[in-house]
Every structure is written in C-alpha cells, then in structure tokens.
Write a sequence for this structure.
C-alpha cells in the first residue's frame, strides 16, 4: 500500500492548530501565576457588587442592574465613585474599604508581573512545557552529554521531534539544542514529575544516554511504569547487566560504548573506516568504507569481481562528487574511488591487506 505524505496545506493547518494549542496552554499557565490577584478582583467587583446592590435597595435607593454593580465597585476602587457619598454607614464602608483592597490587588499583581518579567527562564520554561504538552510520538533523550547531544542531533536530522532532559544545561548546550529545535526540560530524569513534563506518556521512544549504569536502570524502571509500551534504548558499560535489562525490562536495545568503539579502533589501525556494526545470530557484521589505493588489488577490478572474491556486498561506489548506491556489477573501480562494503567483521583484515599498494597479485 502506498502512503502519501501530508500536503503543505495540511502541514500548515496542523502547525497553526498546534501553535494555537501552545498559546492556549501557555495562557492558562500565565493565568495560573496571577490567579490570586484575579480571584480577589473578581470577588471584589462581582461578589461585593451584589452585596452592595442589595444594601442599596434596603436603604431605599432604586435597584441597580446587576451588570452595573461591578462597574460601581471598580469606580470605588479608583476613587471615582459614580454617585455622592451615601450617609448610611453600611454603604459608606464600601467607599473606604474598596480603595485599600485595590491597592493590595494591584500590589500583588505588580509583584507577580515583576517576578515573571525578570525571571525570563521561568517564562521560557513554561512556554516549553506548553509546547511539549502538544507533542505526540516524540523521542525523549535522557542525559545530554557528548553522546546525548549527538543522538539528539541525529534524531532531528532524521526528522524526529525530540525532547532533551537533564539536571542542568550549559549555555552552549541550550544554544545548540534550541538551534536544532529540540525542547529542553530541566530536572531529574528519575522523577515522575520531570518525565511527565517531557510527555513520557505520549512519547514513542526513550534514549537513555547517561554514563552511569545504575542510574540508567533506575530511569528505565520508572519510565516502564509510566509508559509500558514505550520503546527504550540505553547505553550500558556492563554487558552482563545489559543482557538482564533486555530480558526483564523489555529494553529494545542496550548499546555498549565499548562494543561500538572496539571495531572502529581496530578498523582505524587496519586503515579502514568502520562506519556501522551490528550482530545477527551471534555473528558480527560491519559497514566498511575505504579509499582505493593506487596499485592495490581493487584498482581496475569490477564491482562484481570484488563481491564474488570476498563474498561481500558493495553498497556504495563513489568517484569524485558522484556516489552510486548499489552500483552495477560491471562498474570498474579506479584508484581514489570510495567503496562502502557490507561484510562479516572477519573480512576487515583481508580487505585492508588487499587495499595496500603492490597487492594486485593477492
């Protein structure tokens, strides 16, 4: 079945709808900050207004429409009473009590506004949380060190929405992440509150990138309770510990930095760049990239002959600025060409030897 991507109009509508959701939730958060001054103002204008209206009737004055009473209270607050000062003590008290109430409300509101104005990071945090609350099927990266930063960058380059979580971010990290359009949540990744802010219940995947195995385990256990179906990937140093995590915690992939680095270092020593490794049915495979040396076995050979001789798959052939994925078997390899080869890891030594100068007779 062929699926089509959303049209630009649909994407634009979705973006506008999402922006409206973010603005609405951010406004709700802002109103929450001013809830006490607003509540006091509403009680003073509407609540006291209704009482004042009934007292006016009891004193023999004409009944005022209910919608005029809040205006009368507001006028009394700003010392601009709409009528003459009444002689009745129970009405007169409103004229003297409402101005101090207004000062208290304004003072509290001004204090809240000043706090929010100077606390720019707090407002930015509230906006980020509002934005994250609209995200669905995103990826959360826990721990944004060197590895976490590169993971976040790779995910955004692939088109995924990413939320980064760490206990603290340096200004350089914040600048880099915001440049990638990655949302930042500051807090302990083991905290249910922090994970909720990151949208853990709606996330599709979690990548745990801290360098401490036991901290990673604690985070994964908490996340698994909050979202049993989320796909989890974590880095791990202890291979035995990694196997237990996959078996008992349903972790999709446990990646050891040592396992990844070992073939890369070995390949560099052999003169071949190892770009990717994977293990299947107990055997390890790798993606090798090499530049064909002049006078090596590969020079002048066809792609098909290279594949047949070494039982490998040449997945890319590059020459100059051109690159051909799955090149034709009849293509002849020249010195300076780039070959990307998929093969068993055991083939690395043989390929490296064949790419040496004067290896044409190999």
């Amino acid at each position: 079945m062929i699926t089509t991507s959303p049209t630009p109009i649909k994407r634009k509508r979705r973006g506008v709808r999402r922006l409206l959701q973010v603005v609405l939730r951010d406004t709700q958060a802002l109103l929450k900050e001013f809830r006490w001054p607003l509540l006091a103002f509403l009680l003073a204008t509407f609540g006291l207004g209704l009482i004042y209206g009934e007292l006016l009737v009891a004193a023999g004055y004409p009944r005022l429409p209910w919608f005029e009473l809040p205006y009368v209270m507001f006028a009394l607050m700003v010392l601009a009473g709409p009528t003459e000062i009444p002689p009745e003590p129970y009405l007169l008290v409103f004229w003297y009590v409402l101005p101090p109430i207004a000062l208290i409300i304004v003072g509290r509101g001004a204090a809240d506004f000043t706090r929010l104005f100077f606390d720019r990071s707090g407002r930015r945090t509230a906006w980020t949380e509002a934005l994250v609350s609209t995200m669905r099927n995103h990826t959360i990266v826990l721990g944004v060190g060197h590895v976490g930063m590169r993971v976040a960058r790779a995910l955004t380059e692939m088109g995924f929405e990413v939320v980064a979580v760490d206990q603290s971010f340096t200004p350089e990290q914040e600048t880099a992440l915001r440049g990638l359009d990655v949302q930042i949540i500051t807090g302990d990744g083991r905290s249910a509150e922090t994970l909720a802010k990151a949208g853990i219940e709606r996330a599709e995947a979690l990548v745990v990138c801290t360098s401490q195995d036991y901290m990673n385990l604690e985070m994964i256990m908490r996340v698994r309770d909050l979202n049993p179906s989320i796909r989890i990937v974590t880095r791990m140093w202890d291979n035995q510990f990694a196997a237990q995590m996959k078996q008992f915690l349903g972790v999709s992939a446990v990646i050891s930095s040592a396992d990844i680095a070992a073939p890369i270092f070995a390949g560099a020593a052999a003169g071949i760049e190892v770009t990717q490794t994977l293990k299947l049915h107990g055997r390890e495979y790798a993606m090798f990239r090499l530049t064909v040396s002049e006078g090596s076995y590969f020079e002048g050979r066809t792609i098909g002959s290279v594949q047949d001789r070494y039982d490998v798959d040449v997945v890319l052939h590059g020459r100059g600025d051109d690159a051909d994925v799955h090149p034709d078997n009849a293509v002849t390899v020249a010195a300076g060409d780039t070959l990307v080869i998929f093969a068993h890891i055991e083939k690395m030594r043989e390929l490296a030897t064949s790419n040496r100068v004067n290896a044409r007779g190999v």
